[in-house]
Design brief:
single chain; 7 strands; phosphatase activity; 20% strand; seven-stranded mixed sheet; PG/BPGM_mutase_AS; globular; Rossmann fold
Length: 198
Amino acid sequence: MKKQLYLMRHGETLFNVLGKVQGACDSPLTNKGKMQAKQAATFFQENQIHFDHYYSSTQERACDTLEIITNSNHFYQRKKGLKEMNFGRFEGESSELQPKGSHNFETFYEQFGGETARDVQKRICHTLLSIMEQEDHQKVLAVSHNGACFYFLNSIWKHSDRKIPTYFPNCAIFIYTYEKYQFDLTDIIDPSSKKSIL
């Protein structure tokens, strides 16, 4: 029987609004970010989606998003493997200083003490695989980050005729099935509009 993984991006943060680089560093959810998390909770409720296990990145913005969704009524585990990419000395700086083009994320930040894209992809794939391989994990919710979610999606993307999405709204919900060490993307939902963004 196929399992399901619901992987989410956190809600909007102060650094998102200010246009600052936010990877390993953190900033609080804005009021809008909190509302986005509540909209995600409503999406799950309206679609009668119930989870048996919950996980979050160790970063505050992800934990707070999950706690709003669950109304702090469920135990969850924090996993460092779900954290966002570390941008090294670019952390907290204006995003305008970042080089343009997704190819620059591959190895650029390593020279500044950050991670490579491969580093991020390897750790999030390992983390999610180890989570979903547990027998009692049939339907899991995990809150992570834009870059981390992208690199995971990139690792399992099977549509050679379609361009892979590179940006996802805050609280975007990635719906995956899991069976025999294989993840398949079912949909990506923006809970604010309740529509697919694929």
